[in-house]
Specification:
Blueprint: H1 15-33, H2 49-59, H3 64-77, H4 81-86, H5 89-96, H6 103-119, H7 127-131, H8 138-149, H9 158-167, H10 178-188, H11 194-207, H12 230-233, E1 247-256, E2 261-266, E3 277-278, H13 291-296, E4 305-306, E5 311-314, E6 319-328, E7 336-340, H14 351-362
This protein binds iron/sulfur cluster.
The site of iron/sulfur cluster has 15 residues, from helix 9.
Length: 365
């Protein structure tokens, strides 16, 4: 059942007046303390929708510090939407490698095509129209509408959830609290400078209203906050206990040929790490693999030699443990490619596969 929005901000009875004062104080703080970020327009500059879009897609599930260098590389290589749309998907995946959540890269590329072909290379301005673009969800649509086009759309991500849950003292655990948080967030959006306000909330959450112990004494909106002090605020937003992540297991086949080239294979377009390159492996499943069964899943016949140790990696929904078997082979494999070891850096290898490569090279592969 949807939780109704808390109908108060304490210390004043007039919600409209208190919101208006909150806007003024938070925007004044933002004018002095806004973080300088590579994708952000400087005060007085018009935001570039392409940069806003690119950064918001990259920032989903990923920190500002991690995204920074990737954003700069992307922009240097594909400075405009049309150039990105014309790039081969493989190049985009290669530059994205290491940033994770690879479906974002494929969707970004598809979205660039649609924007160029159907929208003449221009982004729609309205949140609802942005939602029509391929795989643009509620968060990026609101963020692009607010930041690039100054529309009063609330981009509710994890940071916004934290700040709003504390400002309104929403004590229902996530994810059940999401509708109430979205409603409260929408009620906060001002008509004046909504794009700056959206970013001000992000900066407040990143630098003052932080996870763990917030710095309420330094907070520019403390007087409007329903909790207003660190010990009360720290546990918010509450979260429902998570179930344990399962561990899946697999065998990865480190196959080199007589020229010491490594066999890589492209993963299917759909699904986890879709379209990325991999060291071929068995399926990843919770039951382990018996030697005889795993051999049946190798892409080529070889005399296998197990390498010591295991490669461990954690995805959002499971832990992965991979054994590595090394062998020599030759021949063609569907979606396969023989790559010299010094060219591995040019391949779209996700983080888990980079770990596999590093482990194999260190352990006699
Ligand atoms: Fe967050 Fe404290 Fe500010 Fe409330 S007063 S918004 S809990 S930093």
């Amino acid at each position: 059942m949807e939780e109704s929005m808390p109908s108060y901000i304490p210390r004043t009875q007039d919600l409209g007046a208190s919101h208006s004062a909150l806007h003024q104080q938070l925007l004044a703080w933002y004018d002095r303390h806004a973080r300088r970020l590579p994708w952000r327009a400087l005060p007085g500059q018009q935001p570039d929708p392409y940069r806003v879009w690119l950064s918001e897609i990259m920032l989903q599930q990923t920190t500002v510090a991690t995204v920074g260098p990737y954003f700069e590389t992307f922009l240097a290589r594909w400075p405009r939407l049309e150039v990105l749309a014309a790039a081969p998907l493989d190049d985009v995946l290669t530059v994205w490698a290491g940033l994770g959540y690879y479906a974002r890269a494929r969707n970004l590329h598809r979205c660039a095509h649609v924007l160029v072909e159907k929208y003449g290379g221009k982004f729609p301005r309205e949140e609802a129209a942005l939602r029509e673009l391929p795989r643009i969800g509620p968060y990026p649509a609101a963020a692009i509408a607010a930041i690039a086009f100054d529309q009063p759309a609330a981009p509710v991500d994890g940071i916004w959830e934290r700040v709003v849950a504390r400002l309104f003292a929403i004590r229902t655990p996530l994810p059940a609290a999401k509708p109430a948080i979205r409603k409260a967030a929408a009620s906060l959006m001002p008509q004046r400078r909504p794009g700056d306000f959206a970013q001000a909330v992000m900066d407040l959450g990143a630098t003052v209203c932080q996870p763990g112990r917030p710095k309420c004494l330094l907070c520019p909106v403390a007087e409007f906050c329903a909790v207003g002090e660190p010990d009360m605020a720290a546990p918010l937003p509450l979260k429902s206990p998570k179930s344990e992540k399962p561990t899946r297991r697999g065998v990865a086949f480190w196959i080199t040929d007589v020229q010491r080239r490594l066999l890589l294979r492209r993963r299917p377009e759909r699904g986890l790490l879709g379209g990325m390159m991999e060291v071929p492996s068995t399926e990843w499943r919770e039951d382990g693999w018996a030697e005889a069964e795993a051999q049946l899943h190798a892409p080529l016949f070889a005399d296998w030699r197990p390498l010591p140790g295991r490669v461990r990696h954690t995805f959002t929904h499971f832990h992965l443990e991979l054994e590595l078997w090394a062998g020599q082979g030759e021949g063609e494999v569907p979606e396969g490619r023989w790559v010299t070891l010094d060219a591995l850096g040019e391949q779209a290898l996700p983080s888990v596969m980079r770990k596999v490569v590093a482990h194999a090279l260190k352990n006699g592969g």
